[in-house]
Specification:
Elements: H1 3-7, E1 12-15, E2 23-26, H2 28-31, H3 34-48, E3 55-59, H4 63-74, E4 77-81, E5 91-98, E6 101-108, E7 117-125, H5 129-139, E8 145-153, H6 159-162, E9 168-174
Bound molecules: adenosine monophosphate (AMP).
Length: 175
């Protein structure tokens, strides 16, 4: 059985959430199933186990779940990229357009170090605004390499095209 066959039954779609016209892919139904959750973490671990990842940057909030499990498995540190005003110490901030509105994302200024090998992780790549903004933040720290991973890539929304050319992007499911 391939990954798509295995994981798709655990995803819930919610029409018109959070605003009319958006079909929302809900990963909480996947996270709550022990086998499906383990499959996501293990399959992603396999993709990055030999890359020398030193930090996993998880995007608030659904990116924290698999991001933290991955950091543990990879022997890397975990860094949260959070919505404005949530992190207590000095931050870098980047603004972006999303599928439903404008937003900003922040990271602590001391979250990464020069030379880190960074894996950015989120649940869904939609229009790519969020991950592109996090990518911009991560570049400020002069990392040695940057990778980007999602559980789901929603194809046809232009997300991949918005990311910097040449950035290594993977997704477990292409929907
Ligand atoms: P984007 O910046 O458009 O790529 O949006 C990505 C962020 O918004 C991720 O953190 C997703 O969790 C969330 N998101 C955007 N669109 C959807 C969608 N259709 N279904 C589920 N999550 C979404």
């Amino acid at each position: 059985m391939d990954l798509k066959e295995k994981l798709l039954p655990y995803l819930r779609t919610v029409p018109d959430y959070p605003v009319p016209g958006i079909l929302f892919w809900d990963v909480t139904t996947l996270f709550k199933d022990p086998e499906a959750f383990r499959t996501v973490v293990d399959a992603t671990y396999e993709l990055y186990k030999d890359k020398g990842i030193t930090k996993v940057v998880g995007i608030e909030s659904r990116g924290f779940v698999v991001g933290a499990a991955l950091a543990y498995r990879l022997g890397a540190g975990f860094v949260p990229a959070r919505k404005p005003g949530k992190l207590p110490a000095a931050c870098w901030s980047a603004s972006y357009d999303k599928e439903y509105g404008k937003d900003r994302i922040e990271m602590h200024q001391d979250a990464l170090e020069k030379g880190d090998v960074v894996l950015i992780h989120d649940d869904v790549l939609a229009t790519g605004g969020t991950a592109e903004a996090v990518g911009r933040l991560v570049e400020r720290y002069a990392p040695a390499a940057v990778y980007c991973n999602f559980i789901i890539e929603l194809e046809g929304l232009g997300g991949r095209e918005k990311m910097p050319a040449g950035l290594d992007i993977t997704a477990l499911l292409h929907l």
